[in-house]
Amino acid sequence: MKRRPLTIQRLVWFLLALLTLFTLTILFFIIGYITAKGVPTLTPEFLFGMPERMGKEGGILPTIVATIYLALLAIVIATPLGVGTAVYLTEYTRESALTRIIRFGADALAGVPSIIFGLFGFILFVIYLKMGWSILAGSLTLAVMILPTIIRTSEEAIRTVPYAYREVSYSLGGTKSQTILNVVLPNALPGILTGIILGLGRSVAETAAVIFTAGSSLRMPRSIFDPARTMAVHFYILAREGISMPRAYGTALLLIISILVINAFAYILLFRLTRRFR
Amino acid sequence: MNEKITIQNLSVTADGKSILANINLTILEHEIFSIIGPAHSGKTTLLRTINRLIETQPGFSRTGKLLLDGKDVLNWDIETLRRRVGLIFATPIPLPGTIFDNIAYGPRLKGIRNKRKLTEIVEHTLRAAFLWDEVKDRLDTSALRLSGGQQQRLCIARTLALDPEVVMMDEPCSGLDPISTAQIEDAMRQLKNRYTFILVTNNVKQAARVSDRVAFFLAGQLIEVNSAEIIFTRPADKRTDDYISGRIG
To answer: Which chain B residues are within 8 Å of A94, Cβ to Cβ?
Structure first.
């Protein structure tokens, strides 16, 4: 029997559509399930109240504050380091054994489980550098964890800036640093931001690395030297210790919403940034 | 007329391979000097050697002398050199951003921040490049939306904004229609009394239309240099004759 190309086309289309549908079903099931379970808990008292009886009652305000602190501080630490490294690797070095080792190291770090980073952060920041369980120690650990992502995405973004732009800048009397600041980085910005957003998302959602380094104190943090409990950690503890499943779902829902908001915000920002180039 | 650029025994190699061999050439102030020759004859490399852009890529080395106003380009401060000797590329490359920002790029790097001064420079150079009337109402729109011919004139204006003494053009009309080409040639003729032009071109007719003097390059060697009239009517070397009459290249 001769197979007709059109039939194969339809078959492939059908298979791919089925796979997509399967993926989407799982995704929507998870989101739908958590939403259904979490919505009743999401009251103003829950969002803006202080936790009572280990989170069995009351709100989760300190964990929201802690999450924002930790994630933002991690980004503030990791972005200059990561972008700086990427600029160095792309603009100031030729391909050599050294750059390959740095790149290999970054890739290897990106694949290390987060709990290893947690242990590393615990030993280095919490114990050795005597920071104790604190937002600072947690942020530094998260920064180390997301650094490879930021380095690699920034590097890719910088590489996509046409070499001709650099030549134009040089030929207009620009120095190397002026060229990097005025031409290379602005044009790589959308790509660099993507890396930062990925890192931000991972920081917000991280538990293992944070529980070891920032601790799990439910008190409202007053400074970056205080221990704190993030939403993700709070959710983990609520669920694992069986403290309150409804509250765990409420926290989980808020976590999902935060990630969605971050991504939506990033999307709008990217759109704004790239619009002026069109 | 004064000697603007003096080239003595200049050789350039890339990764050990010869690109330009033993070039001797003098370019005078306020002339339009054309360099013609087939692909891979070293024309672009010569321009990039003059403004030292070849140094940004590894593997190049040069020997011999290359003087701007009697001082070797290697002894000039590199940014000053590149402002004095502007380069316009074969394909127009506007930087992403507005028309205004493109032209103000060079002056801003030089430290000019005054908005009025910048506006003056932008208008002045756009007029000089015959682009003002077409873009004066949309200076704050993206330069990438201009047509190819407009983009190339923008690039010329951007180079003029550096207030250069020498303007080098690397096949500036290779991707342009005849009308845009004519506009750019007009601009060159008008600006000749203020600048020295070095024009690299594949278009023999263009060289004949605008040049005062013409050099013919072949495979990294300078075959012949003379006034445009002589080169195009009675060249001394048979290879020049073959090239301009279309038998080689």
So the answer is: 58
